[in-house]
Write a structure and sequence with these properties.
It is built from 21 helices and 15 strands. The chain is α+β, with helices and mostly antiparallel strands. Strands 5, 6, 13, 14 and 15 form a five-stranded antiparallel sheet that branches. The chain starts with a helix and ends with a helix.
């Protein structure tokens, strides 16, 4: 290692080229890096969902969940099975082992489900899919004094507008009832025309569907035939012909029934600031930037509000990127003030140029870690930013040790070549500095190999801390000596202009030396002379610390409770309570919340 240190110190072009490469690569990597709120974790889970209309949960469990569990039990790579049986719906989740090929497992899973022959006849086709986690970024709320249909149509228009933005690719409409077309058949009309309910339902099923009709071979190629007659609006269902009479007259659905475009009969309603509302959830997918998505949504909402009709309002809500932005702001502010403290503290003891290059070393270390983060599968998120904040106070140690030793060597022999002194000083502390970094890396390394989903999340921290420390070591041993060993021609001129500062530095340094020799040295001498008393005091302090923990004075929590930014009120009513009574209770809570809002705003 001594030879490499010597070569880089005597070849400043190579040292500067290495530094510039790290800086440029780090900046480019940062500009193109994925930004998300929380690191993505593969759930490694496959699910099958089966709709069994009108069946009670017990029937769903017996007819759907049990056969699926028996079919997939014993699959290679299957870790755990969880089932949910609800009214008219059965869901079975299969969790995979970490080292299983998901593609092969999914194919085997589908084959086993397709081979089940004991399903009830009236179930719908099972839906099999791999569970993929999409991260919600922000919500857009459409509220106003509109009826339910107009509000949903306007919210759908807002959703389509959001999807035209290049930053947004996934947005879903929620907090509204699903659309439903109801056909209310009149009993006396059926008697009048001599029809049955089955005849009407059969006509609707036969006419409202898309049917593939095969292909016609021709010289220019095959022509695919397909009948497209799926209906989506109530007026289309009204025109369906139920029966054709011998006299040429026809009986249509509208003759015997009333068709309505409405909503499913579910007890669902949403309000925002006291008015009826619909919500659009905006998600991040792939390598999209959460901050870019949030900024695009906020810009759209602010611009759209100026053109909205009276009585309609747009608002963004639950912007999760606020946490990411605050953590990023904390990192930048800590980094800035940390650099100032480092430069200011070192300037009291060492040369200004030396303090400057130590600060540059911190920047190089961080940019080096940012350069490697995409290759390590790490994005800019809450945990990676926490890793940077954690290592901020450690990364500067190597450069301080090396630079202080160089300063000491160069001051001991002012006539000697400064470059030679810088090389000797660096070589002297290379081993202890390297071991110091290696021990810190060893402390964080087990966290990078922790198993399971928690391990995937926590591994982000060491994958940020370890590269930062390694680049700090690289910069301290191979780049810093070259900078500190070559004094520029203008150094003496600047030093003469800052004579007042160097006089203050000498005064401050004399006070520190006095403290070292008269206070610290004497205390250390007594501690060594009475070594058994010193040892007993240390053991006593250790026992006292352990007693504080064992006695319960210092609590231990793996994940401590953190105050949130939202206040939620959840009301559980007795089973069988009508929707109107529940809505009345919720309205009282809502009115109290609005009163509190007015009080806080005032």
């Amino acid at each position: 290692m001594n030879g490499i240190i010597n070569w880089f110190a005597r070849n400043p072009v190579a040292a500067n080229l290495m530094a510039m490469t790290i800086i440029v690569a780090g900046i480019v990597s940062t500009l193109n890096m994925k930004q998300e709120i929380f690191p993505e974790v593969d759930p490694r889970m496959v699910t099958v969902e089966v709709v069994y209309q009108g069946a009670a949960p017990e029937e769903v469990e017996r007819g759907v969940c049990k056969p699926i569990e028996e079919a997939i039990e014993g699959m290679e790579g299957l870790k755990k099975i969880t089932s949910t049986a609800a009214e008219g719906l059965g869901i079975v989740n299969a969790e995979l082992e970490l080292d299983v090929d998901k593609g092969r497992f999914l194919d085997d899973f589908k084959n086993r489900i397709d081979g089940i022959r004991t399903f009830p006849e009236d179930i719908e086709e099972p839906v099999i899919e791999e569970i993929k986690v999409v991260k919600q970024v922000i919500n857009v709320v459409v509220s106003g004094d509109l009826n339910e249909r107009d509000l949903k149509d306007y919210a759908e228009m807002v959703r389509q507008d959001l999807l035209t933005s290049p930053e947004i690719s996934l947005a879903t409409l929620t907090s509204v009832r699903p659309d439903e077309i109801t056909v209310q058949i009149s009993e006396w009309k059926l008697r009048e025309y001599g029809m049955t309910m089955e005849e009407v339902s059969r006509a609707i099923r036969q006419f409202s569907l898309d049917i593939p009709g095969g292909a016609i071979r021709a010289e220019g190629g095959d022509v695919l035939i397909r009948t497209k007659n799926q209906m989506y609006e109530g007026r289309e269902f009204e025109d369906i012909v139920i029966r054709s009479n011998p006299d040429g007259s026809v009986i249509r659905v509208r003759d015997v029934a009333t068709v309505e475009d409405g909503f499913q009969d579910t007890d669902l309603s949403s309000r925002f600031d006291g008015r009826r509302a619909a919500m659009i959830q905006v998600f991040r997918t792939g390598k999209q930037s959460a901050i870019a998505i949030s900024d695009a949504v906020i810009q759209y909402v602010n611009g759209k509000n100026a053109t909205l009709p009276e009585g309609v309002a747009l608002a963004y809500w639950q912007d999760d990127t606020s946490y990411l932005k605050s953590r990023l702001s904390l990192l930048l502010s800590n980094g800035f003030f940390g650099l100032l403290l480092v430069v200011g503290t070192l300037a009291l003891f060492l040369r200004l140029s030396l303090a400057f290059w130590v600060a540059v070393g911190i920047v190089i270390s961080f940019l080096g870690a940012l350069w490697l983060m995409p290759a390590l599968g790490v994005s800019i998120n809450l945990l990676s930013l926490f890793g940077f904040i954690l290592v901020l106070g450690i990364v500067v140690d190597d450069a301080i040790v090396v630079s202080e030793n160089i300063h000491e060597y160069q001051d001991l022999d002012t006539k000697a070549d400064s470059l030679t002194m810088a090389i000797k000083a660096t070589q002297e502390v290379a081993k202890p500095v390297s071991f110091a970094v290696c021990t810190t890396v060893a402390a964080f390394l087990p966290l990078a190999t922790a198993p399971g989903s928690i391990g995937e999340i926590l591994s982000v921290i060491p994958l940020v801390v370890i590269p930062t420390l390694l680049f700090s070591l690289l910069e301290s041993l191979f780049i810093l000596p070259s900078h500190l060993g070559h004094r520029p021609a203008w150094y003496e001129a600047v030093k003469s202009r800052l004579g007042w500062f160097y006089r203050f530095q000498e005064w401050f340094n004399s006070k520190v030396q006095y403290f070292i020799h008269h206070v610290y040295a004497r205390t250390l001498e007594k501690a060594l002379r009475f070594r058994y008393a010193t040892w007993a005091a240390c053991i006593g302090i250790l026992i006292a610390c352990l007693g504080v923990v064992a006695g319960g004075w210092l609590r231990f929590q793996v994940f401590p409770a953190v105050e949130g930014d939202n206040l939620a009120a959840i009301v559980n009513m007795p089973q069988g309570t009508s929707a109107d009574i529940t809505a009345g209770v919720v309205q009282r809570i809502e009115e109290a919340a609005l009163e509190l809002q007015e009080e806080l705003d005032s």
